[in-house]
Design goal:
The protein has 221 residues and is an all-alpha fold. It has eight helices and no strands. Helix 2 packs across helix 4 and helix 3 crosses helix 4.
């Protein structure tokens, strides 16, 4: 048991280096997913028919292809068209495109959860479509957005471990380096699992507190 904790303690600095890369990956993928997802949701709700069809095709493609296949397609396929990405940014692009498809559906569902009667009331007060969205739809939609976003964040965080397959030195790959030297996989994998748990559970709790803070008694989805 003493050797177990000694090995984890000795390995912790290396694992934290990988954790920092995992966190950077997660932040960039979430940011890309949020920005593109919001654009996709707008196009799907307010866009023309050809635009809605294009978004639907994008959505079906990137929600159907496994994340690992996307990673390999981006990393090994992009050089074929003259665009070479580092393993880190290939992972960001591949997982970000996939996250955008899911975020778009989360945004779309959140916007549509706001009752049409509230939009009608906003128009009756003289608000333009833009102002009605900013002041009426968006604030209420964000309350509905937080719970599914928390789930998507957890999925994105765990999916960053797939970047190991294309050579990104994130948490899992750092753990594999240690195991190669120490020949003790159990303590290292348990430590990795513990770090993922802290990152997932900690942010989920923060988002839950934000959800409760924004909640209005008597109004819910």
């Amino acid at each position: 048991m003493l050797d177990f904790f000694e090995l984890v303690k000795k390995s912790l600095p290396t694992l934290l280096e990988g954790t920092f890369v995992t966190i950077k990956l997660t932040i960039l993928i979430v940011a890309m997913g949020l920005i593109l997802g919001l654009i996709l949701a707008f196009c799907q709700i307010y866009g023309s028919k050809p635009l809605r069809i294009a978004v639907a095709i994008y959505d079906r493609i990137f929600r159907s292809i496994p994340e690992l296949v996307l990673l390999l397609l981006i990393f090994y396929g992009m050089p074929g068209i003259g665009l070479r990405l580092s393993p880190f940014y290939a992972a960001v692009v591949a997982l970000g495109l996939r996250a955008a498809a899911y975020m778009g559906q989360i945004f779309r569902g959140s916007f549509m959860s706001v009752g049409s009667d509230q939009l009608t009331a906003a128009y009756s007060l003289g608000m333009s479509e833009y102002k009605a969205f900013i002041y009426v739809i968006f604030p209420q939609a964000m309350r509905a957005f937080i719970p599914p976003f928390a789930n998507e964040y957890a999925i994105i965080l765990k999916d960053t471990s797939l970047a190991y397959a294309i050579g990104v030195v994130e948490l899992l790959r750092q753990g594999q380096y240690i195991i190669t030297v120490e020949y003790e996989p159990l303590p290292i994998f348990l430590a990795i699992a513990g770090i993922y748990f802290v990152l997932t559970f900690g942010v989920a709790r923060l988002l839950k507190k934000l959800e409760n803070k924004l909640k209005i008694p008597g109004i819910g989805v």
